[in-house]
Design goal:
Layout: H1 17-22, E1 37-43, E2 49-55, H2 57-60, E3 65-69, E4 92-93, E5 99-105, H3 108-117, E6 119-124, E7 143-144, E8 148-149, E9 151-154, H4 157-163, E10 166-174, E11 186-192, E12 195-200, H5 205-216, E13 223-226, H6 242-254, E14 258-261, H7 264-270, E15 277-285, E16 291-303, H8 316-319, E17 324-334, H9 347-365, H10 369-375, E18 388-390, H11 393-404, E19 417-418, E20 421-433, E21 440-445, E22 451-454, H12 464-476, E23 483-486, H13 503-524, E24 534-539, H14 541-545, E25 551-565, E26 571-581, H15 588-607, E27 613-614, E28 619-620, E29 639-643, H16 667-679, H17 690-694
Parallel strand pairs: 1-14, 12-13, 16-17, 18-25, 22-23, 26-29
Antiparallel strand pairs: 1-5, 2-4, 2-6, 3-5, 7-8, 9-17, 10-15, 11-12, 11-14, 15-16, 19-20, 20-25, 21-22, 21-24, 25-26, 27-28
Helix pairs in contact: 9-16, 12-13, 15-16
């Protein structure tokens, strides 16, 4: 094998770019499956109760309608870990928008028309869909998302707060938010006797296949998921959701392939959302800024079906040194859809509260907010006591401040004007755990000198396909154009989903191991490849399990410059700058895109996004993109992402940490802190609307 210049770290364009710009990249709904029918979900119009009757006559009378399905005539699924996947298995209604029936027809339009003709009668029960503190049903779960403890405590927090010279006690809220991926949830389900193929918009093909096999009582390998390209997910496609199960049920019922594509409106109740949070943060500090006590409490909601609880307070456990610490998650199960993962679940809302509180503490101390964070830098993980594999938060703060022009900043709020605009700057820190899960991969050498690498990864727009190709090419010691990377197929073996910023770390380890083993075999045979080719399979389960105990996180510092209209309270973000430390960057082009994209999503979180709960019905009043606002081009003016060169050999063979979610964490707090600096108005409730800002301006 010839030694070549390494491509890991190079600015490589996307290997699938030509397919995407020419429209030849196939997404779930576009696969040419012959003889397919179309299914349309009928959703509950009541928030809680039971279906008394489904009247399907009018729908069945329409030309082209093949079947109307409900809980009386569908295949009985096995119990699943997620009760949301028990589609049409019961007449009980747990929330408005739950699937209570479905129509199968010969065209998409006919299916939609027929679904509107289905009449459902209900026995309606009282419901409660409002998250309020003091609800007697609130409880502290033993564990939260990610397997973290629901509550942790070290020392005597209450006594330490009482004795602290400076105390901050503030409450912050974040609203429900929706993932709103560009590609709606879509599936084509094809049965062949007792095997099932799903063409699915999917972040985790292997995991989806395993879940569907369990639901339908099928052996391992009987479900095949194909997801060559996925148009975004942000967590909502990491595991199967009700539309995927509906497609499989409908196809089994009618004996033909069935296509399901959720409408934009349907997605707002059928495919999860980010839980709202009500967070109280209490900080005690000495007058030099050193924290003596940290108390972070987070109240959230879930459905009555499942006690999903985000890890909202967990970043507080690792961020800053303090002898006395308490973090608590509290959960209320309401008559609402089940929330689940949305980009940086837990960390994004949790760090908004913590980093806003740190800014407020800096103001109370008369201290620069960067210096406050620096003096509270821990030497080891404050929660576990484990050493950090690498932690360059202070370097991010220093370098970011230099690039942003922080030096000489006047800390007094409300003093800088540009005409009618008040101008301010803010900063916030961010972190995200560096997670790696076991995975398998296969590397194959062909007699013609080409290589094929297969791994059940998913590229949801992140550039994972390109980064993994770079890893493979370097391990094989060949040019990148000699490597074909096949992903998006459950048949390629065990692999985690694209989520938790662990995809490239997990899949890349397996790819590197398989390619390294193949390169060794080729070296032993002087590069000779037999007519049947050479193949190596790698499994990283033992490698991941053998890692030493380190606290592994990526870190960053976010800086924002805002202008606020002194009359209307309108906020414009003129500049965002992020400085990150995320291990070795495999591809600067795709990593920069991910970081900037996360920062734009954080800007959207700060200024626009928020689902409005209608307490009468228990669902969201703004359930489309006309009323659920997302940042547009005019909102995003100057977004810059930089990173430090960081060597960390306690991660994986590439030395990489994930960047997909790091960019969103901290952005909203940086913007909120900048709004305070511009106006003197502290907005603790997201989004930062004109009404909330204007209410605090002089003369209002």
């Amino acid at each position: 094998m010839t030694t070549l210049q390494r491509t890991v770290g190079a600015d490589v364009t996307r290997v699938e770019g030509h397919q995407k710009v020419t429209g030849t990249a196939l997404y779930a709904y576009e696969y040419p499956v012959p003889d397919a029918l179309y299914a349309w979900a009928v959703q509950s119009t009541v928030p809680r109760g039971r279906v008394r009757a489904v009247h399907a006559g009018a729908a069945l009378a329409l030309p082209g309608v093949v079947a109307v399905l409900d809980s009386r005539n569908v295949f009985r699924l096995r119990p699943a870990g997620d009760p949301e996947l028990a589609v049409l298995q019961s007449a009980d209604v747990a929330y408005r928008g739950q699937i209570v029936a479905a129509v199968v027809a010969d065209t998409y339009e006919t299916a939609g028309q027929a679904a509107a003709a289905v009449r459902v009668e209900y026995d309606v029960d009282d419901h409660d869909a409002e998250l309020t503190d003091g609800d007697p049903r609130i409880f502290v779960p033993d564990t939260v998302n990610g397997g973290y403890p629901g509550q942790t405590e070290t020392g005597d927090v209450e006594t330490a707060l009482a004795a602290a010279p400076v105390v901050l006690d503030a409450t912050y809220t974040t609203p429900p938010e929706h993932t709103s991926a560009m590609e709606p949830h879509a599936t084509i389900a094809v049965w062949d006797e007792d095997s099932l193929t799903l063409y699915n918009g999917d972040q985790g093909p292997w995991m989806t296949a395993a879940t569907l096999a369990e639901l339908f009582g099928l052996p391992e390998g009987a479900v095949r998921v194909v997801a060559d390209h996925t148009g975004g997910g942000f967590g909502s496609k990491a595991v199967p959701r009700p539309p995927t199960v509906l497609a499989a049920l409908a196809a089994r019922a009618v004996g033909r392939p069935v296509k399901v594509a959720a409408t934009r409106q349907q997605m707002f109740t059928m495919v999860t959302y980010r839980t709202p949070t009500l967070q109280r943060v209490r900080l005690g500090a000495e007058r030099d800024g050193r924290l003596t006590a940290v108390w972070h409490d987070a109240l959230q909601q879930s459905s009555t079906l499942a006690p999903y609880c985000e890890q909202t307070a967990t970043p507080t456990r690792v961020m800053y040194a303090a002898r006395h610490r308490r973090t608590t998650h509290r959960l209320a199960q309401l008559d609402v859809p089940t929330p689940s993962w949305m980009r940086a679940p837990g960390e994004a809302p949790g760090m908004f509260a913590l980093e806003s509180a740190m800014d407020e503490l800096a103001v109370a101390l008369g201290m620069d907010p960067i210096e406050l964070r620096v003096v509270n830098e821990p030497s080891v993980d404050p929660e576990s006591g484990h050493p950090f594999s690498s932690r360059n938060l202070v370097a991010c703060l220093r370098e970011g401040a230099s690039r942003f022009g922080w030096a000489g900043r006047d800390p007094a709020p409300g003093r800088r004007r540009e005409g009618r605009w008040l101008v301010g700057t803010g900063v916030a820190a961010c972190n995200y755990p560096a997670i790696t899960w076991p995975a398998t991969a296969t590397a194959r050498a062909e007699p013609d000198g080409a290589f094929t690498v297969r791994v059940a990864a998913a590229d949801i727009g992140t550039g994972a396909r390109t980064a993994l190709t770079q890893v493979a090419a370097d391990e094989l010691g060949v040019e990148i154009d000699r490597v074909t990377l096949d992903i998006g197929r459950s048949a390629y073996g065990q692999a985690p989903f694209a989520g938790g910023s662990m995809g490239t770390s997990s899949w890349g380890w397996a790819v590197a191991k398989a390619c390294r083993a193949l390169a060794k075999r080729l070296g032993e045979s002087a590069g000779a490849v037999p007519p049947g080719g050479l193949e190596e399979l790698a499994d990283t389960a033992d490698d991941v399990a053998a890692r030493r105990d380190f606290s592994r996180h990526a870190y960053g510092a976010q800086f924002a410059r805002v202008r606020v209209d002194a009359v209307t309270g309108q906020v414009r973000v003129d500049r965002l700058l992020g400085m990150f430390a995320a291990g070795r960057i495999i591809n600067p082009r795709t990593a920069g895109s991910q970081l900037r994209g996360g920062m734009c999503m954080g800007l959207s979180m700060a200024l626009h996004e928020g689902l409005e709960v209608d307490p009468r019905f228990g669902d969201f009043a703004n359930h489309d993109l006309a009323t659920y606002h997302i940042a547009a081009n005019a909102d995003v003016r100057d977004v810059q992402a930089y990173w430090l060169e960081e060597d960390d050999d306690e991660l994986n063979p590439m030395g990489s940490k994930g960047v997909g979610e790091l960019g969103i964490v901290g952005t909203a707090a940086a913007i909120a802190n900048a709004v305070y600096h511009a106006t003197g108005v502290r907005v603790r409730d997201l989004p930062i609307t004109v009404e909330r800002v204007r209410a605090g301006l002089p003369g209002h």
